[in-house]
Specification:
The chain is of the alpha+beta class. The protein has 3 domains: 320 residues, Orthogonal Bundle (ADP-ribosylglycohydrolase fold), CATH 1.10.4080.10; 152 residues, Jelly Rolls; 150 residues, Exo-inulinase, domain 1 (Jelly Rolls), CATH 2.60.120. It is 30% helix and 27% strand. Strands 14, 15, 16, 17, 18, 19, 20, 21, 22, 23, 24, 25 and 26 form a 13-stranded antiparallel β-sheet that branches. Strands 3, 6, 8, 9, 10 and 12 form a 6-stranded antiparallel β-sheet that branches. The longest helix is centred in the middle third of the chain and has 21 residues. The two termini are 46 Å apart.
Length: 696
């Protein structure tokens, strides 16, 4: 089947629907129906502020959904992608007890149990099977909540979605949990080409056993909703027949799947009503609302999301994906949608669509997209200032901009301050932007602009007390009606602190300016020239900038950076996959361990190059790829514990090199084209007083 003409927009709507549902349901996850009605009333809109939570949070529903399809990139874009390969992606991207999953303990959390099985060498699908884990653990909700990505890459191809969903779901689940996931994925895939809910259900049912419990549940709910507009009566029947008291475990799939089917049947073409029903009904609200929101988004498109209240404005496309590939953690719905859509095209045998505007990071090319940009608050912030997406650019509308006031719009490129308020899920992320990189933007003043404005690029970085500090480019561009300008600026040093936001600030040197300025694109190029070390002050975001799977990462030793690993290998990483040709320079000291050294081009915690010294007296260049380590080059070099040494490692094209003192090694390998840099130690401790990244 050919790709629908509006495929990209429908993927975008599906991603947005998923996010809206999760953000809506997350603050009262696991509440019961009566408690929700008593304390919140029917859930018609976001309630996070009433419960003291941020709107945009890390969440397993989001992180897992948009991390696991990376297995297609890593192991081959094919509908025959195996459960075993998806399991490898779990081990590469999920940091134990820190990212993506609910780490509730073996036998409590199905996903934690499956991850432990994978780490022990039990490959998928055995890692999630009933035979390995028992029916109770295997049939909780998790397979379903992560399933939307496989449908989004399978437009109009429910058989492919079902196949990929079955492989993905079986990494951690089995039985009815996998049936539910397969049914929903097939329905979502078919929703690209049909708005007939009964047809969608029949399509989903055709991919699961006719005599399974999920199939019987669907039949019951169809009967209960036929000719019945009272969703609360249907909910009561679900509680009476399929409620939590009927199924063991913390969060069984059956009751929650029932609520999703009910909400879809009672609100087949109404996004807001569907969200109200599924959220007010309680139980695993963010999971259920996220799955329903994605299906409704695909089926109804962007118009369906915008038929009710302004869901998109407060969200501003933002999402966080906490994983070991920290340079991809701070992202947005546009970036995710374009990536998934091109995976879908490749699976369908069609050509991918080139990245908009020569690959600009922020291009605002989807309808209404703002890619995280919002007005920056502050004492001098202009009151009458809005930020909206035109589908071609970011519109900055302002009234009465005058000296002493500013209109600034920024977007996150690293962990926000709100992370300190987030419950349950950690955010593992590293900054997307660093000193030494070249920022650029294209701006246009519309014809109706009155007065003259000055436009400057802005970064905001963390300071000594973890408060944000602004730096603006020194020389901006003056714009009057009809003018266009290119802003370019090399990101300056930030005192070893991570950059949190990037954006644009408008001011008026004299008089008053009102009108609209369009930000056509904003991006950056090049590898950074940056030094990492402990900055002055008591702040901690500099340390959060390192994605870490080590057991101990201290900031209280004399050395600026010191890591310790109790079992196996541990890493700290910082950087993005845009870092291709670069050198890493560091003064290191191995205090104890089998080996220690520097990491290059890391794409997660099990796919990278390393330059290391070993306890046995060798200097090595190594490639780690999943379960396999290959020594690419080696030389004799003995450095005792507690002895400092300087190491320079670099990657340029397929050439890898390392130098320690008078000893140098080279090797050739083209497995990893780009990725993060960092430190690695095996069962010991390693420290450094500085790590410098520079282009080569």
């Amino acid at each position: 089947m050919s790709i629908p003409a509006d495929y990209t927009h429908r993927v975008y709507a599906g991603v947005l629907g998923k996010l809206i549902g999760v953000y809506l349901g997350r603050p009262f996850e696991n509440w019961r129906y009566k408690d929700i009605l008593q304390k919140l009333g029917p859930i018609e809109y976001y309630v996070h502020d009433r419960l003291g939570d941020p709107l945009i949070v890390t969440d397993d529903d989001i992180a897992g959904t948009f991390t696991f399809p990376r297995a297609l990139d890593d192991y081959g874009i094919s509908p025959d992608l195996s459960a075993e390969d998806i399991g490898k992606a779990w081990l590469n991207y999920i940091i134990e007890e820190r990212s993506i999953l609910w780490w509730g303990g073996a036998g409590n959390s199905t996903e934690h149990t499956a991850w432990l099985n994978l780490a022990r060498g039990i490959k998928a699908p055995a890692s999630g099977s009933i035979e390995t884990n028992g029916a109770t653990v295997a049939e909780q909700i998790g397979a379903q909540i992560f399933i939307d990505g496989w449908a989004l890459v399978s437009p109009g191809n429910p058989a492919q979605a079902a196949k990929l969903a079955r492989a993905a779901g079986s990494v951690s689940h089995d039985g009815e949990a996998v049936h539910a996931a397969v049914l929903w994925a097939a329905m979502e895939a078919e929703a690209f080409v049909s708005r007939d809910v009964d047809h969608l259900l029949d399509t989903g049912l055709s991919h699961i056993p006719a005599d399974c419990l999920i199939a019987r549940l669907v039949a019951d709910i169809r009967a209960w909703t036929s000719g019945n507009e009272d969703w609360e009566a249907t909910r009561q029947k679900i509680e009476d027949n399929y409620g939590y008291d009927k199924y063991p475990g913390n969060c069984h799939v059956v009751p929650n799947h029932a609520l999703m089917i009910m909400a879809l049947l009672h609100a087949p073409h109404d996004f807001q009503r569907g969200q109200m029903i599924v959220n007010t009904s309680g139980w695993d609200t963010d999971c259920n609302a996220g799955n329903l929101g994605c299906l409704h988004g695909i089926m109804l498109g962007l118009d369906g999301l915008e038929a009710g209240p302004d869901w998109r404005g407060p969200m501003a496309d933002r999402l966080y994906i906490s994983s070991a590939d920290g340079g991809r953690s701070i992202t947005d719905a546009v970036e995710i949608a374009l990536w998934l859509a091109n995976l879908g095209r490749t699976l369908a045998g069609e050509a991918i669509v080139p990245a908009p505007k020569q690959g600009a990071t922020f291009h605002f090319s989807l309808p209404g997209s703002v890619q995280g940009f919002r007005p920056q608050p502050g004492e001098t912030a202009l009151e009458h200032f809005t930020v909206t997406g035109t589908g071609e650019a970011l519109a900055l509308d302002f009234t009465a901009l005058a000296p002493g006031r500013q209109a600034a719009a920024t977007t996150p490129v690293f962990t926000p301050v709100d992370v300190l308020k987030m419950r349950t899920y950690d955010l593992m992320a590293s900054p997307r932007l660093h000193p030494g990189q070249r920022l650029s933007a294209v701006v246009r003043a519309e014809a109706g602009l009155s007065g003259t404005v000055e436009a400057k690029l802005r970064i905001r970085h963390y300071g000594a007390d973890d408060k944000l500090v602004e730096i603006d480019m020194p020389d901006g561009k003056m714009l009057s009606a009809g003018d266009e300008a290119v802003l370019e600026w090399t990101v300056p040093d930030t005192g070893y602190q991570p950059i949190a936001e990037v954006g644009l600030v408008l001011t008026a040197r004299s008089g008053r300016a009102s009108g609209r300025l369009l930000l056509d694109r904003l991006t950056w190029t090049g590898c950074p020239d940056v030094t990492f070390r402990r900055p002055a002050g008591a702040g901690d975001f500099w340390r959060r900038a390192w994605v870490s799977n080590v057991h101990f990462f201290s900031k209280h030793f004399p050395q600026d950076i010191r890591i310790s690993q109790n079992r196996g290998a541990g890493l700290i990483l910082q950087g993005t996959r845009d870092w291709t040709d670069y050198a890493v320079e560091a003064d290191l000291m191995l205090h104890l361990g089998t080996y220690g050294g520097l990491v290059l081009r890391a794409q997660g915690q099990r796919r990278y190059y390393a330059a290391r010294i070993t306890r046995d007296g060798e200097l090595q260049l190594v490639k780690r790829r999943d379960d396999t380590e290959e020594v690419l080059a080696r030389a004799t070099l003995s450095i005792p514990f507690e002895t400092g040494f300087q190491m320079v490692a670099q990657a340029e094209g397929d050439r890898l090199a390392v130098t320690v003192g008078a000893v140098s090694l080279e090797a050739r390998d083209g497995s990893f084209a780009g990725g993060a840099a960092g430190m690695e130690v095996h069962e010991g401790a390693l420290s450094s007083t500085h790590i410098r990244i520079r282009p080569v």
